[in-house]
Amino acid sequence: MGVVSEEAIDGFLELIDQVEEPLKKTFENVHQGYLREHLSRFLKARDWNVCKAKTMLVECLRWRVDNEIDSILSKPIVPSELYRGVRDSQLIGMSGYTREGLPVFAIGVGLSTFNKASVHYYVQSHIQINEYRDRVLLPSMSKKNGRPITTCVKVLDMTGLKLSALSQIKLVTIISTIDDLNYPEKTNTYYVVNAPYIFSACWKAVKPLLQERTRKKVHVLSGCGRDELLKIMDITSLPHFCRRGGSSGSSHHTEGVDCFSFDHPFHQQLYNYVKHHYETQGQAEPSKQGSFHVGFPEPEAEIAKTIESELHKFENCNGLCQPAYDRKGCP
Q1: Nearest by Cα to 129 from 158, 157, 161, 152
Q2: Model pLDDT for residues 286-307, shown as the tens digit of each residue
Q3: What domains can you pick out in the chain, each with its CATH number?
Q4: Which phi and psi (to 5°) does residue 29 adopt?
Q5: pTM for this one?
Q6: How would you write 228-278 as a 3-class SS string?
């Protein structure tokens, strides 16, 4: 960090010391002992403006207190068949780590249907993955590597992206807004793979609306991106869709258990972790449970409307306007 950055963090520390106790308690779960590194995330998100960063952090902490986020890792989604349904329709998982120790999260953007549960379960699942990453995985990797590891990388698979994605924009935008406001700068790089023309058109329209620091994080790779990704991770950490060129739900995998599946070690460990923390409260496993309702922030309307507009263009011309698109795939 440069001198200006260190001075900004010092100023931020003085302001944060003034917040009330309930917020300080939840902030411990946010920074996990790496105070300066996490303050810098909020500063980056507000272009190093200390006052704006403080406002953002305080609003994040209030959101955590109001929605009991600190206890979300003791709120299992039950029965397990329901959680399996969430996993089959909200394709996300962890495939491994980069050589620098950053967790690699794989997301099947194009084939996620979000049609097996209510919106609240999908939001609950997403936040649980965030919290497990921040409170379990990252501290463990930091200890193992002897240095702070506070971010991850995400590989976004666009296989199967179609006009039907129009119906999912609201939910995806809600989840993205939750991340932007409450988990800022947690993703080091976004790698986009298996991108069809429809993605390229949407990305061209949305890109100018994003802040420069966000644009720089997004790398659209050729085909399944295997060669580029192998520069930063071993093949064992490569998402399955980068090995064979396409996503699949857990019921369609052909090469072992893919990282989206409920049967994958990551999801088994996460599910058992949440179940164990529920049981340690002295309660039997619930046979049925209502979803964990979280207050939704107001989504970024401009970006959502732009994506919606681009998708409607394809819908109105029934695909006839789509030019030939030659995408190099992977065996």
Answers
A1: 152
A2: 545 555 667 665 655 565 666 6
A3: 3-66 (1.10.8), 72-279 (3.40.525.10)
A4: -70, -25
A5: 0.87
A6: HHCCCCCHHHCCHHHHHCCCCCCCCCCCCCCCCCCCCHHHHHHHHHHHHHH
